[in-house]
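Section 3.1: Structural characterization of target chains.
Under the original work plan, the team committed to producing a structural model for every single-chain target entering the pipeline before any wet-lab resources were allocated. The record below documents one such target. The sequence was received from the expression subgroup and is listed exactly as submitted; it comprises 321 residues.
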Amino acid sequence: MTAADDPSGPRRPASPVSPDLPALIAALRGRWWLVLAGALAGLLAASAWVRLTPPDYEAVMVVGPGSDPMEAPDAPSGLGRLAALQGLTLGEAEQVSDFDQFLHLLTSVPLARRLTASDRGEAVLPAMFPESWDAVDETWRPPPGPAAWLARQARTLLGRPAWQPPGAEELAEEFGRRLTVDRVGSTAMRRLGFFHRDRAQAAAILAALQRGADAMIRDTALRRADAQIAYLADQRDAVALAMHDEALTWLLRREERRRMMLSVDLPFAATVIEPVTVGRDPARPDPVLVIPLATAAGLAAGVLLALLLARAAGGPAQRPR
C-alpha cells in the first residue's frame, strides 16, 4: 500500500481555489456592492450607447423567383436534338438561375456602377456616405473624427492613398454591409432588408437595388434573345430540309415571343411578393436586445471581480508561515 492509498497517511491541504459553494456565496455577500455596481455599469453603458448611436431604419421587401416568359410545350418532334446541335436550350433548368443572379447582383460593383451612372446616382453616393459629403459646397471631404484619421494613417503606411472620394467599389461594399438577405421559411422567397438612418432613403435605395439588379438581368436576356433571333434567321435561310426549316421557324418564333415579353415593363428575374415597407421605429440599435445583454455582462464582471478580491484577501491568511 502506498502513502497515497493509506487513509492514515499525510493529507494534502485543501486548495484555496477549490469550488466551495458556501464560500462563494459568502464572498458575494461580503462584496454585494461590486455585483450591483457591475450590473449598473453595464446598464448605464448600454443606455448611453443606444442614445448616442445614430439609429438605423430598416426597409423590407419580399421577392421570389420570376417566371420564364418562353415556356412553350407544343414543340415539333425532333426539335430537342436540333436545338442541341444549334447550341440552344428549350427552357431546361440552368445551373445558375436568373433569381440567383439577381441575389448576387444586389451587392455587386456592376450594379453600384449602374446606379451611380443613372439619374439618381448623384443622390445615392451622398446618401450612403453623408459623413464625407459637404452639402453646402457640394463636394467630397475626408470624414472627420479620430477613427477616420487613424484609418487614413494606416492606409498611408500600407502604401495606399490616404483617402479618395467614394466610387462604385466603395458603394458596393457599403451595400454589402447594409443589406440583409434571409430565406422565408423553406420557400424560395427571400426577405430583403436595407438599413439607413433616413426612412425615406432606406426605402428608395432598396427599391433602386431591386429594380437595378432586375434590369441588368433583363438587358442580358434581351441581348441574348436578339443574338439568337439573328442566328436562327440566318440558319433557316441556309437549311435545305423541310423538317429543319420547320424546327428553326418554331425556334425563331419562340425567341421572338421571348423578346416581346422581355420588353414588358414588369419584374423579370425576381417577382415582388411584398413591396417596400419601413417600420416607424429604428431597427438598430435594438435597446430590447442590447440593454439586457450589457446588464448581464456587467453583472458577470461584478461577480468575477468580487470572487477575485475575496480570493486575494483570503489567500495570504491561508498560507503557512
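Residues 199-238 form the longest helix (40 residues).
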